[in-house]
Amino acid sequence: MKDYNLTRKKIRTLSIIGVLLLLLYGKNLVERQSFTSISSTFTEVYNDRLVVEGYIFEISDRLFQIQKLIDHCTIDYDYSKVIEEITTNENSILATVVEFEKTKLTDQEAIYLANFKKIIEQDLTIKSYDLLYSDSSGVNREQVKIYDAKISQARQDLQNLSKIQMVEGEKLISKAKILINRSQIWAQFEVALLIILVVVIFLLLFRKSDSGQDTDQYSSADR
After folding, report:
1. Percent of the chain with pLDDT over 90
2. H or E element: which one contains 50?
3. Residue 98 backbone dihedrals phi, psi, to 5 degrees
4. How many CA atoms lie within 13 A of 108 on its CB side?
5. 175 vs 61, which has greater pLDDT?
6. DSSP 8-state assignment for residue 130
7. Residues whose CB falls within 8 Å of the CB of residue 59, separated by 6 or more in sequence, listed in order
8. Which domains does the chain carry?
9. Which domain of life is it from (predicted)?
């Protein structure tokens, strides 16, 4: 009867150990997924937010160069190739926009970017220098004002896109913080499980040792 009870206790103890090991295994799977999510989040912060902010800065600089050329800001500048230079800047902007479009865009980003692209492709495409300047009347101020207004619209789109990068970047960082905090909780849970596992194994060995001593005592008494 004693052997039967001892066997039942061992089975119960081993079952507890098995459950604890399964919980540890499950915790490791969850934590692995959490680390994958954290890695993915920081990759997204870099590729879709920080890199994109660099695109916006580059586009803004090119747009500024176009406006300087249109407004004839530099008196001593040779404007004989102004259309070619404007076209070069616009092509560079559009090439950057293509890279921008490959990133993960929010719905609002897609709208602003499409509107910006339309302005560059349609409203700021200047085929003839005569639209900006003529020897008889000088700078065509009315036409320049129209182009400046379009550039202002394009700049507003860029500002809105930049604001989105800040908002979305903060969301991603908050998400990463939540995942990290969750991982810390799981780590504490793992430590607790390991302590329980050690205690259970210790009790199993201790009881086994005590049972062996009791058996020896009974044997001696019988003799």
Report:
1. 33
2. none
3. -60, -45
4. 11
5. 61
6. G
7. 93, 96, 97, 158
8. 2-210 (1.20.1330)
9. Bacteria
3-state helix, strand, coil in the chain (%, to 5): 85, 0, 10
Radius of gyration (C-alpha) of the chain in whole angstroms = 36
Q: Which of 129, 126, 125 is nearest to 80 (CA)?
A: 129
Mean pLDDT of 39-59: 81
The secondary structure of the chain, three-state, reads CHHHHHHHHHHHHHHHHHHHHHHHHHHHHHHHHHHHHHHHHHHHHHHHHHHHHHHHHHHHHHHHHHHHHHHCCCCCCCHHHHHHHHHHHHHHHHHHHHHHHCCCCCHHHHHHHHHHHHHHHHHCCCCCHHHCEECCCEECHHHHHHHHHHHHHHHHHHHHHHHHHHHHHHHHHHHHHHHHHHHHHHHHHHHHHHHHHHHHHHHHHHHHHHHHHHHHHHHHHHC
Q: Which two tokens stand for residue 110?
A: 């897609």
Query: Which stretch of DSSP H or E encloses residue 136?
Result: none
Say how far apart CA 148 and CA 96 lie, in whole Å.
21
Whether 59 has a pLDDT exceeding 60, the answer reads yes
Stretch 157-186: mean pLDDT: 81
pLDDT digits (tens, 9 = 90+) for 95-138: 999 999 999 899 999 999 999 999 999 998 888 888 888 877 77
Question: What are 11's two structure tokens?
Answer: 């089975």
What is the token pair recorded at 136? 């008889």
